[in-house]
Amino acid sequence: MTGQVRTVDGRVAGRRGQATRQKLLDCLSEMLSSSPYRDVKVIDVARKAGTSPATFYQYFPDVEGAVLEIAEQMAAEGAGLTDVLAKRSWVGKSGWQAAQELVDGFLDFWRKNDAILRVVDLGAAEGDKRFYKIRMKILNSVTNSLTDTVKELQSKGKVDKDVSAAAMAGSLVAMLAAVASHQKGFQSWGVKQAELKPNLALLVHLGITGKKPTK
Amino acid sequence: MTGQVRTVDGRVAGRRGQATRQKLLDCLSEMLSSSPYRDVKVIDVARKAGTSPATFYQYFPDVEGAVLEIAEQMAAEGAGLTDVLAKRSWVGKSGWQAAQELVDGFLDFWRKNDAILRVVDLGAAEGDKRFYKIRMKILNSVTNSLTDTVKELQSKGKVDKDVSAAAMAGSLVAMLAAVASHQKGFQSWGVKQAELKPNLALLVHLGITGKKPTK
DNA sequence: TACTTGTCCTGTCATGCCGTCAGCTTACCG
DNA sequence: CGGTAAGCTGACGGCATGACAGGACAAGTA
């Protein structure tokens, strides 16, 4: 899939090299969780990995490059977010359940990868196409799936034709991503997870079907 | 209100000093729009302002500190976001209009201040309480207003009691903020502003009232 | 064992930014 | 005109960056 792992100067990395490379990625990942993105320095990552800055630059052009690598790995994992939605009916109780599971899956995934996702989000918002692409990769499976659902419901006459399926799906996904990345904020503001989830599910259901769920 | 503007070492800033300070803030602001947050250096800001790095450190402890200052200024401005909502009825056509105007105001405000808001969002997501507070300051007026609306509708029996007003309002506001900060993303993905806005308004209306709008 | 080859890592260096300080200049006031 | 405080900067030690050459190491060959 990735073909071959290569160093910056073009050599192919062997067993040992790949291990070092991965260790650097892991340490960077950890670092991103514990300190602000702006303050993450190559030298700290290298020290944490028990190696030297020069080694880091052998495998990655800069911190951004390494972050992109981590994000790619995560994106592959995140493709599974959409499994929940496959072949789901959005009519009746089944729809309410689909909405709930989508919300659950999303929040979990985000909580697990919040540090990287933060950086990816920033990069995308700043207009960096590489980050933007990865963000798409993660969100697209869900967005596309939801878009299809809306279109299908529209063709059956169950949803107004003047709804833009893509815009609706995109907005809902953006909402999920935003709420997920500010989960802590909600909590310290007095909103509990237990309240948050059903409300998000309700909004998703309302947005997709245009109707209140039958619970 | 702010009392007196002071330098880092305690002196009070006079006319000239305040002008320099403001110029630094303006240049920083511009810089944030044109290059990634991670790459904004004090020396560049100072150069752009026609002064020296030492001067920067006279007025701000670091880049973050200056960003907070800009964000404060913006937050004051952003308090006006809620004007649109004051004394609005969410019943009938008026509700649909309120939703539309809210979305309009939000997207405009975000587009105007996207660079700072990006950084504030990042800081908040990273758990920095100072950034989190400012984010609240900007969003709270809207969130609270929406929360009140939902509660009012609940007391009149027009909205289900099991909806958490705060969670719903918070989710909607988070959605608006997220979509706003990825406006460019939506566009390059094939979703036009003209489609986006009504869909967001629809979602807001659905979330607040639980019903489709009468247009 | 000695030699070769290619991978892997680091010491070192020039460069550039950070953050601080002493000290110079400028403005204001009696 | 002299005093005082504001305003600014040159210069410096410290540290991160990013490049390079060369040493360490493993594996294969004879």
TrEMBL record, chains A, B:
DNA-binding region: 41-60
Xref: Pfam families: TetR_C_38, TetR_N
HTH tetR-type domain sequence ranges: 18-78
Coiled coil: none
Keyword terms: DNA-binding, Transcription, Transcription regulation
PANTHER family: HTH-TYPE TRANSCRIPTIONAL REGULATOR BETI, HTH-TYPE TRANSCRIPTIONAL REGULATOR RUTR
Protein name: TetR family transcriptional regulator
Organism: Streptomyces solicavernae
Lineage start: Bacteria, Bacillati, Actinomycetota, Actinomycetes, Kitasatosporales
